[in-house]
Amino acid sequence: MPAAAYNDVSKVFEDGNDKIVAVEDLSIEIQDGEFLVLVGPSGCGKSTTLRLLAGLETITEGEVTVQDKIVNDEKPKDRDIAMVFQNYALYPHKTVRENMAFGLEMTTSLSNEEIGERVHNAAEILDITELLDRRPNALSGGQKQRVALGRAIVRKPSVFLMDEPLSNLDAKLRTQMRTELQELHNEIGVATVYVTHDQTEAMTMGDRIAVLNAGELQQIGTPLELYHQPVNEFVAGFIGSPSMNILELKYDQAAGTATDGDVTYKFTEDQLEKLAEAGVEHVNIGIRPEDIELADGEGPRTVTADVSVVEPMGEESYLHLNVGRHELTASIDGDYIVGNDQQIRVELPESRVHAFHPDSGEAIFNRNRDSEELPTGAAL
Ligand code: ADP
Ligand code: MG
């Protein structure tokens, strides 16, 4: 039984004569104990999706369930969920203890003793016991966020819903809280739906990631599935940083290449078969910055590039390259010395290249995964 599910859910907002389709025909099952991240650009419908499950928006079509029970018509407090928001919305005049207890006092018939015990346990888990008698204005951002989490934990819900809960924190604290949230999740083991627009957060935190664009689910899978096997150009570009490079090229069937004069990429036999099935005349070639390699000489998959900007990151350097009308980003070993305005030759390794349909954006083929040998010691 999934902890919660969306079954063919749509949400349409009416704005005067305008209809805004915020969520379109969405189906997702949230498995027991899993940490599911909903990710996508601003305005793609993430918050609405979460609010539909929370009961803060009405559903236009479809069903939402919690523990296999349809909850479309249940009040938020009766849905067995707890939500954590971006702004912590703590009551300023109440202590931490009172803030954590308040929701339970208002919406349950638990005894004061039981409530006190739940607050105490949640405070221990979150390591904020010594803050229980403080008021919110005497807390740091990270501490406030922990209290907001505590308020959710004391409800002992079937599902946690979190809407960009870390976005008000500075970068360092955000990274730290990311780890803390994962530890918390491991400890409590309650299914969590976590919304973020940040693909790094999605990659690092999600057991599975659901990518949304314009109200529609694009793909759902593990972080590595999305990274290696994106179903379309949108997912390919959204997951991974810096973004995957896309080269819009003509498919020269006779030569077995994708080309435009500036760049020529020679397909393998396997890749040609997939292209034949797709029946395209143009093709968008995708290659991640970290997959581009420096080349020694000319080859069937090399291009000559002008370096426009070098961004040293330490471990690696990002090179911004001009290849004719194309701009590429390559990530190379930080020890390699390369200057602006230098000309270099790079290779697009055949095993690392993706191809996308020029109109639909759907993947025609993805990079190889099977044939690669993992170093011994890799835990699988
Ligand atoms: P996200 O959280 O991914 O940034 P939202 O779910 O907030 O996106 O919004 C999705 C779309 O629905 C946007 O186009 C937004 O403008 C629209 N929308 C959200 N809430 C309302 C509302 N109450 N009334 C009208 N349109 C809304
Ligand atoms: Mg939002």
Automatic annotation (TrEMBL):
The keyword ATP-binding applies. Keywords: ATP-binding, Nucleotide-binding, Transport. It is found in: Cell membrane. PROSITE patterns: ABC_TRANSPORTER_1 (PS00211), ABC_TRANSPORTER_2 (PS50893). One of its GO terms (cellular component) is transmembrane transporter complex. Coiled coil: none annotated. It is a peripheral membrane protein. Its EC number is 7.5.2.13. Residues 4-239 form the ABC transporter domain. It catalyses: D-xylose(out) + ATP + H2O = D-xylose(in) + ADP + phosphate + H(+); L-arabinose(out) + ATP + H2O = L-arabinose(in) + ADP + phosphate + H(+). It is an enzyme of class 7 (translocase). GO terms for molecular function: ATP binding; transmembrane transporter activity. The keyword Transcription does not apply. PANTHER family: MALTODEXTRIN IMPORT ATP-BINDING PROTEIN MSMX (PTHR43875), OSMOPROTECTIVE COMPOUNDS UPTAKE ATP-BINDING PROTEIN GGTA (PTHR43875:SF1). Belongs to the ABC transporter superfamily. Carbohydrate uptake transporter-1 (CUT1) (TC 3.A.1.1) family. Part of the ABC transporter complex XacGHIJK involved in the uptake of xylose and arabinose. Responsible for energy coupling to the transport system. The complex is composed of two ATP-binding proteins (XacJ and XacK), two transmembrane proteins (XacH and XacI) and a solute-binding protein (XacG). This is ABC-type D-xylose/L-arabinose transporter.
